[in-house]
C-alpha cells in the first residue's frame, strides 16, 4: 500500500470536525481524497478552500490540497465506487432520552453497501460502543456474495482530535485500530502509519478498539464529575477548590481536573451513554457512569442557582435582571458549540424571566451583541460560560467597574478572584 499510495483513492464520509482534518491529512500525503457529505453548502465551502470551523492546521492543509486537486468535496455517493479505502466520520449523537442514535452511521453504511467495491477497506472512525461494528455495521454490508475478510475489509480506528489544541492534533495523536480480519488490520495499520506521525496500536479485536474511545471519555467524565461535586461541597465549607486542586497536584499521583458550569463537546457528554446502554443490554448497570453523567448534566442548573443566590444578596431578582452570558462555544478559543452547556444556562435564565444577552467572539451568529463593549453596556450581571482568552484578558475589575457591573459569576474560574475583591465587585466562581 505504501509504495502505491499515490494511486490510492479514498472517500471520507462526513467532512466535519473529524472527517475534514483526516481528509486534508491524507490528501497532503498524496492520496486522492473525495470528501462525501450530505450538506451541499459545506461541500461548496470546502471546494473553495474555506474551512467551516476554527483550526489553523486544517486551514493551512485545506488551502494546499484543494489547490493541488488532491481533495474534492462532493454530495455524489458514487465516488465510493472508485475508492479503495472508505472512512466513516459521521456523528454518533444521543437522542433526547440519552439513547445512542445510530441513524447517521446506519445511513452511511447503507450508502457504502450500495456502492461497495471488491477488496474495499472500510474504516469506521465514528465513536461507537463495543459490538457496533459486528452487530450493526457488518449485517448491512455482508450478504451471500460479500463476506468480510474476503470481499471487503472492516476496521475501526476511533477518532482522536482535540479542537483548538495547538500541540495535539489529527497528525500526531496515537491511534488504536481493530479489524474483523488479519488482512484488514494490516491494511488499516499501514494506512494510518503512512499519514500519522505517532504510534499506531493494533488491537487484538475490533471490540477492544471500540471500547478504547468510550472508556477514554468516560474516564474524563467521571473525574470531572468528582471535581464538580467537590466544588459544590467546598462552596458549603467555604474552601477555594482551585487552591486545593493546585495544592493536591503537587503530588505526582494526582491528576488535576477542574470544575465548571458544564461539560460540552461531542465526546465527553455523549460517549459514556453508548457504554451505559450497551452494558444495560448485556444485563449490567454502570451506576458509576450514570452518576457522573447526572452530576455533570446538573452543572448548568447549579450555575444558574449561583446567579440567583448572588442576585438575592444584592437585593435583586433574576426576573428582569440584565444578565450577559459570555461564550457559547463549549471550550476556549474555538467556534465549536456542540453540547455546549451555555445553551441550557441561557434557557434556564430566560425561563426565570431574565433579560439575557450573549456574546462569543468565535460564534458571532449566535451572539445577540456585536462585541464585548456592547454587551457590557447592557449588562448588570456577567456570567462567563466559556474561558476565551479575550474574556480573561479584558474583563478586569477596573474595567467592569466603569460599566457598573454588579456581579461576576465565573463558570470557568478563569478570572482573578483576588483582583475583584480589591475592587469590591461581587465575584463567585464554581467552588470558590
Radius of gyration: 24 Å
Per CATH, which architecture of the largest domain? 3-Layer(aba) Sandwich
Strand content: 5-15%
Number of domains: 2
Question: How many strands, which pairing sense, and closed or not: the largest β-sheet?
Answer: 8 strands, mixed
Q: Structural class, please? A: alpha/beta
Low-pLDDT ranges = 1-5
Number of helices: 16
Q: What's the total number of strands?
A: 13
| CATH class annotation of the largest domain | Alpha Beta
Give me the CATH superfamily of the largest domain.
Answer: NAD(P)-binding Rossmann-like Domain
Report the mean per-residue pLDDT as an integer: 95
CATH topology of the largest domain: Rossmann fold
Strand order of the largest sheet: 3-2-1-4-5-6-7-8
Looking at the structure, what is the overall shape?
globular
Order of helices and strands: EHEHHEEHEHEEHEHHHHHEHEHEHHEHE
The portion of residues assigned to helices is: 40-55%
N-to-C span: 56 Å
Amino acid at each position: 500500500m505504501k509504495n502505491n499510495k499515490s494511486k490510492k483513492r479514498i472517500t471520507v464520509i462526513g467532512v466535519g470536525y473529524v472527517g475534514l482534518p483526516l481528509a486534508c491529512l491524507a490528501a497532503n500525503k498524496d492520496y486522492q481524497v473525495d470528501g462525501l457529505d450530505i450538506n451541499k453548502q459545506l461541500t461548496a465551502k470546502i471546494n473553495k478552500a474555506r474551512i467551516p470551523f476554527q483550526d489553523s492546521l486544517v486551514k493551512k492543509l485545506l488551502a494546499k490540497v484543494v489547490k493541488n486537486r488532491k481533495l474534492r468535496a462532493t454530495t455524489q455517493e458514487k465516488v465510493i465506487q472508485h475508492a479503495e479505502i472508505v472512512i466513516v466520520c459521521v456523528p454518533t449523537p444521543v437522542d433526547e432520552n440519552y439513547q445512542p442514535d445510530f441513524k447517521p452511521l446506519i445511513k452511511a453504511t447503507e450508502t457504502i453497501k450500495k456502492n461497495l467495491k471488491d477488496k474495499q477497506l472500510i474504516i469506521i472512525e465514528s465513536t461507537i460502543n463495543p459490538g457496533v461494528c459486528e452487530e450493526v455495521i457488518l449485517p448491512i454490508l455482508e450478504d451471500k456474495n460479500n463476506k468480510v475478510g474476503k470481499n471487503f475489509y472492516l476496521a475501526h480506528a476511533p477518532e482522536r482530535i482535540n479542537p483548538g489544541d495547538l500541540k495535539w492534533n489529527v497528525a500526531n495523536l496515537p491511534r488504536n485500530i481493530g479489524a474483523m480480519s488479519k488482512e484488514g488490520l494490516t491494511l488499516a495499520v499501514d494506512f494510518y502509519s503512512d499519514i500519522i506521525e505517532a504510534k499506531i496500536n493494533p488491537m487484538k479485536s475490533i471490540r477492544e478498539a471500540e471500547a478504547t474511545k468510550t472508556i477514554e471519555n468516560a474516564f474524563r467524565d467521571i473525574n470531572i464529575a468528582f471535581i464538580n461535586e467537590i466544588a459544590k461541597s467546598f462552596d458549603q465549607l467555604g474552601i477555594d477548590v482551585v487552591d486545593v486542586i493546585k495544592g493536591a497536584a503537587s503530588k505526582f499521583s494526582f491528576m488535576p481536573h477542574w470544575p465548571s458550569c458544564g461539560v460540552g463537546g461531542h465526546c465527553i457528554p455523549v460517549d459514556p451513554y453508548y457504554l451505559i446502554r450497551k452494558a444495560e443490554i448485556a444485563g449490567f448497570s454502570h451506576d458509576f457512569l450514570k452518576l457522573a453523567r447526572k452530576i455533570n448534566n446538573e452543572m448548568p442548573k447549579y450555575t444558574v442557582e449561583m446567579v440567583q443566590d448572588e442576585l438575592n444578596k444584592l437585593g435583586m431578582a433574576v426576573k428582569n435582571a440584565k444578565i450577559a452570558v459570555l461564550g457559547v462555544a463549549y471550550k476556549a478559543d474555538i467556534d465549536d458549540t456542540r453540547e455546549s452547556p451555555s445553551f441550557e444556562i441561557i434557557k434556564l435564565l430566560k425561563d426565570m424571566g431574565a433579560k439575557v444577552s450573549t456574546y462569543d467572539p468565535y460564534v458571532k451568529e449566535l451572539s445577540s451583541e456585536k462585541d464585548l463593549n456592547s454587551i457590557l453596556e447592557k449588562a448588570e450581571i456577567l456570567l462567563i460560560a466559556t474561558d476565551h482568552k479575550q474574556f480573561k484578558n479584558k474583563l478586569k475589575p477596573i474595567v467592569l467597574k466603569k460599566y457598573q457591573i454588579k456581579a461576576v459569576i465565573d463558570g470557568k474560574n478563569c478570572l482573578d478572584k483576588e483582583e475583584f475583591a480589591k475592587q469590591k465587585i461581587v465575584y463567585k466562581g464554581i467552588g470558590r
